Amino acid sequence: MKDRQVRLEVSPADGVVTANGVSVGRGNQDIKIPLNDCVTVTVNKDGYVEYTKVFCNKPDTDPEPPVREMAQLEDRLVKNTTNPNDAAIEIAGKRVGTGSYDLKVPKNGSVEVRVSKDGYVRYIKNYYNQPNMQEPPVTDFIEMNVDEAYTSSVSSDLANVRITVPVNTEYTSEEAWRILSSIITRYFDILETVDYNTGYLTTSWQVQNFQSSVIRTRVIVSSGGNSDQLAYAIKLISQEAYLDGQNAVTVKDDEKFEDWARILKKYEGLIEEVQARLQQ
What we know:
This protein has helices at residues 148-151, 173-187, 270-279; strands spanning 4-11, 16-19, 22-26, 29-33, 37-44, 51-57, 68-72, 76-83, 88-91, 94-98, 100-105, 109-116, 123-129, 139-143, 153-155, 162-166, 191-195, 200-203, 206-209, 213-223, 231-242, 258-259, 262-264.
């Protein structure tokens, strides 16, 4: 019964080896395992996931340690940091960090990282740990760009909501319709549908393109109620479609657009103006 020795063969060859927290050098090492004791061995190298293994020399309870052990660092490690430092980092739809994250990229695998923060262009990057692909960096500083769609808009609880506007009884239906139409045509160039008799009006989509997304906006007006008082229901539809850098987005790609809880500044006062003019 005696101490045992494990020949640790390290790859990459400059990996730093520690035994029970004490550095014993770089590369291949002979690890001494005292009788009736255990030794925790780690191998580290920047850009790689740490190798850890416990070797025990306890003949009464454990199998004897190997004569030779290959400590091969294969999974890669990328230390991600972001600016702004409170951006959300997501992998496979799950939030994994805020501002920083140590990303593990398995051997022969790939990982897509998404970074997002209100007011900034969403950042997407794939990291590969595969032959014939660019190897992942040791560190990656992600500088996010300001989202012009965000700075060109305001948050609004009036977006994509049907707002009923009662009309002051001093106005005839013709006068109210004329006021309403004149306001809308100052914001929108093209009216797609106009039907005074049913109180129905729609504008064409107006589109604005930004670096990260496409914003489309339109107005739908309909008769606003069942009461004797004349009223109109106005809905300002504001929608956003993200650009993935690969596929173009047109105004007709309905499946790519989602309701956006913001309104471009150019349309910000439309509903308030209708309310003020028809109710005064």
